Amino acid sequence: MGHLTDHRWMGAALALAGRGIGRTAPNPNVGCILVRDGRVIGRGWTQPGGRPHAEAMALAEAGESACGATAYVTLEPCAHVSTRGPACTDLLIAAGVAHIVAAMGDPDPRTNGQGFDRARAAGIAVTTGICESEARAMIAGFLTRRAKERPFVTLKLATSLDGRIARPDGTSRWITGPQARAHTHLERSRHEAILVGRGTLQADSPRLDVRLPGLETRSPRRILLSRTSEPGWETISSPHAITHLAGVDRLMVEGGAQTASAFLAADLVDRLLLYRAPILIGEGRAALGDIGLAALADAHGRWRLRDSRMLGIDRMEVYERA
């Protein structure tokens, strides 16, 4: 198939992978589409908890039609057999797939090129590197956990134009409008866990759940940054303790200012999710405190704008590590 066609089908596979984001740890959220004679004959995405894998789901849907098909997968098919299921590379070989088009290789040492090698040895054509940057962004949590032994961290801030998160008395409901708040709930659904500090807990008693119709079951685990425990909450004593959060590859930090500053000072933030309302508060509570910045020059070049859009009257911006 042509280069443009490959990108088109891989885009569809990436959309399927997005269905599992924040739901598949410790496995990556992968998407797979099986195409034969220009028609989709099977679709799959990694299911909650990590199994079945995307390829297994797509092959089950395609049945015997998979013979001679092209498999578009957002990550190299796994090459290891586990107690939870067979290796996807072996399943693709057994089904008679003719061509594997993959966005990227799997850094897991149990696969790491072996899936591609085994497929080629079985006579399957293999193409790699299609939409690789998009695929890496899709499984940022999985990649960060393996490279840095911690979750991928998103810091969410909702501020006024002058960088305030509350009035001097602590009043903060609502700075942003309903569309921005709904988007926050969508973002929560794409993380395994969400974290706040004790100040936010005491001031707001936040539920931190997902209240979008149809996504209520995707509410993340609630983590409290505090030196003392709290009934009904998982508690960690420092930002670096996120390394010990089992089953969490994507963590959302929602506040408050002291907690946000602590994560930035510890250099643990990978993504900034900034909502700005078209209001001025003046004297009030700042979004951030001391983040350990020694010189203004050190502040430059750290963040790259990845997305910007209007949500009602508010502006949403996403920044990632440069």
Automatic annotation (TrEMBL):
The keyword Metal-binding applies. GO terms for molecular function: 5-amino-6-(5-phosphoribosylamino)uracil reductase activity; diaminohydroxyphosphoribosylaminopyrimidine deaminase activity; metal ion binding. Residues 4-119 form the CMP/dCMP-type deaminase domain. Its EC number is 1.1.1.193, 3.5.4.26. The active site is at E55. Binds 1 zinc ion. Keywords: Metal-binding, Multifunctional enzyme, NADP, Oxidoreductase, Riboflavin biosynthesis, Zinc. The keyword Metal-binding applies. Pathway: Cofactor biosynthesis; riboflavin biosynthesis; 5-amino-6-(D-ribitylamino)uracil from GTP: step 3/4; Cofactor biosynthesis; riboflavin biosynthesis; 5-amino-6-(D-ribitylamino)uracil from GTP: step 2/4. Transmembrane segments: none annotated. NADP(+) binds at A158, W174, T200, D204, G256, A257, Q258, T259, A260, S261, A262. Its cofactor is Zn(2+). One of its GO terms (biological process) is riboflavin biosynthetic process. In the N-terminal section; belongs to the cytidine and deoxycytidylate deaminase family. NCBIfam families: eubact_ribD. Converts 2,5-diamino-6-(ribosylamino)-4(3h)-pyrimidinone 5'-phosphate into 5-amino-6-(ribosylamino)-2,4(1h,3h)-pyrimidinedione 5'-phosphate. This is Riboflavin biosynthesis protein RibD. It comes from Sphingomonas paucimobilis NBRC 13935. The lineage of its organism: Bacteria, Pseudomonadati, Pseudomonadota, Alphaproteobacteria, Sphingomonadales.
